[in-house]
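Model the whole thing, not chain by chain.
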Amino acid sequence: MSLAFTLCLVTVFLLAAFGTPVSFSMITGAIIYLLISGQDLALAGEQIVQGVYNSFILLAVPLFIVAANIMNAGTISDRLLQFCVAIVGHLRGGLGHVNIVSSLIFSGMSGSAVADAAGVGRVIINMMTKDGRYPASYAAAVTAASATIGPIIPPSIPMVIYALVSGTSIGFLFIAGLIPGLLMGVVLMIMNRVQAKKLNIAQEERTPRKELPRITLRALPALMMPAILLYGIYGGVTTPTEAAAVAAAYALLLATVVYRSISWGELYGALKESAYSSASVGLVIGAALIFNYIVATEGIPNQIAGTLGEMDLSPIAFLLLINVVYLLLGCVLDATTVILVIVPLLIPACRELGVDLVHFGVITIVNLMIGLITPPYGVLLFVINGTTGIPLAGMIKQVVPFIVMLIGALLVMTIFPDLILFLPRLFGYQG
Amino acid sequence: MSKLVQRLQQAADGVAALMLAAIFLTFCAQIFSRYVLNYPLGWAQEVGLTLWLWLIFWAGAFCLKHSDHIRFDILYQATPRKVQRIFFILAALGVIIGFALSFLPTWDYITFYKIKKSAILKIRLDYVFSIYGIFLAAIILRYLWAVYEHIHPAKWAAMEARKEPANPHKGEL
């Protein structure tokens, strides 16, 4: 490692530790590197501007953010929840199951875990805690745990960013997430059932059968959305980036024409909020472009590949090792940064060891989503704490059993790659 | 003065929201035109990418507050306010120096593109890329002002008094 690169890393870590935005820390570190290694200081701006200006697939990021925010501003989530209550509400731990099933459906429409927790999650927490049915901390824990499914089932914003850094196809990545997402839903429902018995939660009454058609009909336009997106992408109608625009357009259509549940003011608020989120993510993406350029110039990814190659790991052993690294990183770093900065370091090693990049991508994102609910840096816990005021300490205690279940599901996905690669292969993936 | 700043802030937010809306509408127009009219719009991709570039650095320059950014603030949040003040000043000086060093070479790089035009709409590329220079300048100025606020005892006391509840996790996915 050269002196310039060492000082670059020191700058990035110091600035970030002092609370500076990650993007500014990386840009400043890059400029220090260029200065000391005697290169043109304009290279930082050049990489950032050209990188953003030439990455068409990245446009899916702001569009998926818009779609999620419009869905949350309208009453789409209310109707979905009523539908889920009618389907699974009467089981033991019913509203917990409703929470998980609604997350599964919602994740087929949005690609963001935070949007899921802040939108549909907030509504279901109110339902669960009304009249003291469920302890608030438990309701919050189920919401946080099930929100992690959001970016696993297509569409998925983190997968778009992974596709950018790994060069894999978004279409195959998306479809590869479907079975793992459902598996996560199943293991969470099993744990919910166990916990409901332990907490001695009363069972809800079954929704009368004759109500079912009406409730389903009300929710149907929203339920159609995952189908439309999947058909759009895999029927060859739209590219995944265009599918993001379709998702936003459909959400807007539902909120304005079909359900008439959004005002101009709310629409503007959703757009402004989306612009803010898109820009803060965009800045980190831009900064990562110059940072990764430097890391590649220094040959770091190849050194890592060489070291791991010498250790002669089997693909499974490598993935198990990476799981541990990711789970630790996920405790302190946010998902976007890990995908943008850590993943490029590991891609050559994957090629060297014969690890499939679609398999690796899904494992990576499942790992990082579990990281969203592990303290101390559990973003989903913070978001729920911020929107509902439920204290963190109780939430953390209740979320632990769910984390254990999700890690179990992750292990199954790691050891059986076919579980993830089965669907992409059906659609012609050669891996 | 503060009213003017507020108005300008609202205007900047409006521009950011409008750019995002325009990206969305461009895409809708493209999809409609290609699949319904069977007539792909050549300009749509370029407009989308140009607006995306502008949205990121426009909002980065004029909209996003410190707390709107993606940050790792575990250590920062755990330290006493007095230490945070020193942390902030040191880090801000680092950013100011780094960004200022790169400003002139970057501006040269941008103006060099006055000889090139974009592929389809033939917009001069120095105009397209200029937003990054504006972003660098805006961040330098904003951080200089923030450093002044953190150093000046009365300004610091006022900031302490109106300390807003932190919500540092807006940009997360």
